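Hey,

Quick one before I head out. I ran the complex with adenosine-5'-diphosphate overnight. Inputs first:
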Amino acid sequence: MSDRSILSARRITHIYLTPRGEIPALREVSLALRPGEFVCLVGPSGCGKTTLLRILAGLLRPTQGEVWLGAQPLQGPDPRIGIVFQKDSLLPWRTALENVRLPLELSGWPSLEAARQAQAWLEQVGLQGFEHAYPRELSGGMQQRVALARALAANPEILLLDEPFATLDAITRERLNEVLVDLWERQRKTVLMVTHDVQEAAWLADRVLVMSPRPGSIIAEIQVPLPRPRGADRWSHPTFLQTVWAIRQALGNGGA
Ligand code: ADP
Ligand code: MG
């Protein structure tokens, strides 16, 4: 495994033990993220993507294998790793600002400064004016923006995104992807994003990892040699179409 990797999975196998028996979710998954790259992970529903992200975030201990953060094995959740789930991860009794302030407070920031920073992050994701709204008063897209702002407020080096915009309509999703890429281009966090949308992966990623059906393993790695910034004109770019095709082929070969 490359010394330059910031986060790596080494032969991760995971088997869930349930009252009805064992469910093998992942088989021998290895991957390495390099600092500053944007990687997308695609695979059929139920192939173990969320399981893999939880393991990479230190939230779940794999049955076999190891996760390394830089030069150290990962032992549990770490402030250098931020995660955004698909939905419903905000605290409903806290306003948008209070949700974003939380990681800052937990890391010991004085409350005035934490509020100022949280405010700045809400502006970064385009939510100025909604600081004092509760999650139930916000649309799905706005809630996911708050979740993204909260993850970024903790200033992680690595951002793990589990289909963060999947429940949203196509137009909102596209707009939030633009917000995300714009933030990534300015901040250069290392990003691993799960998506089941092949075109989204080809648009966003430097590199796409394709998983097989459950138990998931990585069956293809596809580079995306498209220049950035990648605008709406990607549709007329042969490289974009070739990449989409290559991902589809790889998914098809997975036995889906
Ligand atoms: P994906 O995110 O790719 O849809 P998941 O990682 O959520 O896949 O799930 C992979 C497999 O593991 C699925 O078959 C799912 O039913 C099973 N699974 C997920 N979480 C649990 C759990 N807590 N207990 C038992 N089985 C689980
Ligand atoms: Mg999932």
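The longest strand covers residues 21-33.

Talk tomorrow,
K.
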